[in-house]
Recover the amino acids of this structure.
């Protein structure tokens, strides 16, 4: 008997744990410092992948697991950071932006069921870049005491790196869709119902 689409089964929990782990492992790379700015990290690639592969609900759960690990003080963010202080500094908005970002990525990428290149690109760019910036830039401005316009201009330094991360997320997602479709919860559920 197939699980309800609203409930997580054991495979969903495993997928959520794996993608939370991917987000954490991408933090091991460490931050790439940008003078006077928020450092560049690889962890948003993990957020993009969680949304493109798992969809909005399960991808959101993976990000919430990472948030919980951060909140209890585990050093799971880039540079070995953790603790509640991560939610109040200049980078806090970018971190908190992961949740609405992964939700938007998942909603767009999974809008038609099977992964398609164009939906995956749009999801990664809109959710993984625009939404995260929309949360991060105003928080960075408020914490650092600069204008939102100035913070937005500073954010332009991140665009090339984020575009590369989005491209990598699309390539990996499409390769996974071809190599192992059951990795995608929606595809796996449709197959279970068809059998």
């Amino acid at each position: 008997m197939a699980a309800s689409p609203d409930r997580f089964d054991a495979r969903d929990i495993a997928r959520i744990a794996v993608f939370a782990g991917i987000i954490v492992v991408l933090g091991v790379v460490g931050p790439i410092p940008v003078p006077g700015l928020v450092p560049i990290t690889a962890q948003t690639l993990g957020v993009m992948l969680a949304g493109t592969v798992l969809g909005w609900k399960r991808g959101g759960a993976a990000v919430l697991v990472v948030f919980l690990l951060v909140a209890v003080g585990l050093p799971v963010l880039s540079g070995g950071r953790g603790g509640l202080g991560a939610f109040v500094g200049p980078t806090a908005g970018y971190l908190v932006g992961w949740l609405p970002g992964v939700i938007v990525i998942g909603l767009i990428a999974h809008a038609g069921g099977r992964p398609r290149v164009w939906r995956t690109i749009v999801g990664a760019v809109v959710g993984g870049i625009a939404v995260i910036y929309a949360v991060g830039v105003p928080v960075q401005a408020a914490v650092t005491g600069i204008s939102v316009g100035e913070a937005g201009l500073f954010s332009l330094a991140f665009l090339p790196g984020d575009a590369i991360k989005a491209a990598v997320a699309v390539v990996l997602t499409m390769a996974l869709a071809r190599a192992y479709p059951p990795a995608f919860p929606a595809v796996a559920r449709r197959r279970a119902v068809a059998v």
Observations:
- The chain has one domain: 10-194.
- The first helix runs from residue 10 to 25.
- The domain at 10-194 is CATH 1.10.1760.20 (Arp2/3 complex 21 kDa subunit ARPC3).
- The chain is about 65% helix and 0% strand.
